[in-house]
Amino acid sequence: LAGCGDKDAAGGSDDGKLVMGFSQVGAESGWRTANTNDIKAAAPAAGIELKFSDAQGKQENQISAIRGFITQKVDVIAFSPVVTSGWDAVLKEAKDADIPVILTDRAVDSQDTSLYKTFLGSDFVKEGKEAGDWLVKDSAGKTGPINVVELQGTTGAAPAIDRQKGFAEAIAANPNIKIVKSQTGDFKRADGKTVMEQFLQSTPKIDVLYAHNDDMGLGAIEAIEAAGKVPGKDIKIITVDAVKDGMTALAAGKINYIVECSPLLGTQLMELAKKVHAGESVEQRILTQETTFTQEQAKAALPDRKY
Ligand code: GZL
Known about the structure:
six-stranded mixed β-sheet, binds beta-D-galactofuranose, Peripla_BP_I, carbohydrate binding, SBP_2_dom
């Protein structure tokens, strides 16, 4: 709408605040909830007006939300793409409308990197490698096959593609370690439980579960216990994220190792939005800082965990 008073040409808010349109993947996991809460808190703290949209895990909802932000002439668009492909057209529309786009959390496979100003998020291949490296170390000196079942994240999502890649590359160091079953649990606890039930029924010997996030690992633990097995002992479990529920299970010995993936991108995102809006140049790729946790480290870290 044509503004009045000190509204800037790009259609910012009436009181001159920078307006950000954010399209979120959904609410599929504890990580996503923490990510959403952090973004919603960081916007007002940075004096930014946030228009927030939850896509319930559907790419078409993200695309229509982005189109809505373009129509509303927001100053900056940010989003976490649920899957890597299928974004070029709508990103071109944002570019043609002269609205800068910031990617957070997940990547897109667009070859044209002029379609977004920067990508702020984790290195998921590294996360998968950390998980695989731990298993290789833990398996040192053991003889005989080590059968791994893998609960993959959302099909086509950057973290699922890359966590699978990094893990597979790392475990190649020990040919005894084999992924005998791999299936998506869509980053959801309920799906992780259902798929693990199927793994348990169809796979005689499971030594390790590698789950691409804590939530699927926690669902799998329910299935493992229902099958009369001890998680963390009969079946070792490695997950990614390090949200509170995962860290609690790790400290209790039901998970053996967690690779952290930080959801706290909000403050960095808001600072980037201000720079991009001001026409300042920003790094094309900004990596988040994160670590890994053993059971002992989880016990020490739990009291201070913010999410
Ligand atoms: C990773 C993020 C993933 C988390 C899951 O940055 O995209 O999506 O690992 C979440 O828990 O659902």
